[in-house]
Amino acid sequence: MDSMENFFNWLSKSIPMEEVQVWMNRHNMIPEKIELYGDFAKSLYLVIFKTYLGFENGPTRIRMSEDEINGHFNWAWKKVIEDFGKENINFKMEGEHKEYFESFFMDVFYHQEDEKVRNSIDKFIDELFLYKKSYTKSDLEILTDVYKSFEKNFL
Q1: What is the rounded average pLDDT of the residues 89-112?
Q2: 12 near 127, Cβ under 8 Å?
Q3: Where are the domains of the chain?
Q4: 137, CA 20 to 30 Å: which among 51, 66, 68, 116?
Q5: What's the N-to-C CA distance of the chain in angstroms?
Q6: pLDDT-based confidence at residue 132 (cuts at 50, 70, 90)
């Protein structure tokens, strides 16, 4: 086995729950906030998924411009921020949390040609934010990065 294969095996290997707990404690990750941030991500996905009509192979058969795509993401982002605000759960409108999700959705939703990838986003979000599950090293690092970006932008 070469070193690259060893690295990928290490990245994809499940981490024992005790080690996950140590990791989360070391990074001050609170289970209720993991769930909250997961709810936010899922809400954003649902608003984007249910309201975007711009796929050539979709119901409208219309391809949207880059400005329209950006406008749709910004509208959805603002809507979810405002919806959470109505429940006294306040996030900053701008910040690295927005940059992260904008980049994510541009890559795996708006500019994604493979419908299977677009349709797997909700499962990815559910699994990423599911507390008390076995994580791989890469999943845990993604969750930690997203968690910390939310923490910086949670009011």
Answers
A1: 97
A2: no
A3: 33-152
A4: 116
A5: 48
A6: confident
